[in-house]
Each structure stands twice: as C-alpha cells, then as structure tokens.
Amino acid sequence: MSADCAWYLYLLECTGDSIYTGITTDVARRFAEHQSGKGAKYTRSRKPIRVLGQLRFATKSEALKAEIEIKRMSSAQKRSFCAQLPTLDADQQTA
User: Fold this and answer.
1) 7-90, which class in CATH?
2) At residue 89, does pLDDT exceed 80?
3) Rounded CA gap, 32 and 20, in Å?
C-alpha cells in the first residue's frame, strides 16, 4: 500500500436492522469480504445487506478517529449521518 492511498469509513446495513461501521482502502472489496463471511465477526452473524454510506479520508489515522466517533452514535444518528453520504452503485454492492 502506498503512502498516498485513501482510506474510507463505511457503514453497512446488516440483518436485524443493525449497522456495522468499519474502515478500509477499498469499500467494494471489503463489502464482498463481509458478504462472503470473511469479514468481521459482527458481519458473520449479522449478514450485510447493503452499503449505507462511505466517506473518504486522506490518512488511516483520520479514518480511525471518524470511526470511533460514528461508533459512539445511536442507530438513528448513524442513519441520519448516512443519509448525507454517497453510496456505492447497486452493481458494486453485490458479491
């Protein structure tokens, strides 16, 4: 990975009306990993349905700080936040 690689904060809608938050350098790849059961433990038991939103950061540090802030939000706050973010195209959301 090069030093100028962008990092993304992403939020996934999962079964059980839950939301998973994570960071990655490639949202489409990471979403596919979550869908295939190779992602986080959380998404193995709560299958991801779609990407709710993503936000680009210049550094991993910035993305991690944002992830912490988002994880402190209630589900309603996360959904409101996601409504303001760009999403992946439908063809990028399927494995």
Assistant:
1) alpha beta
2) no
3) 14
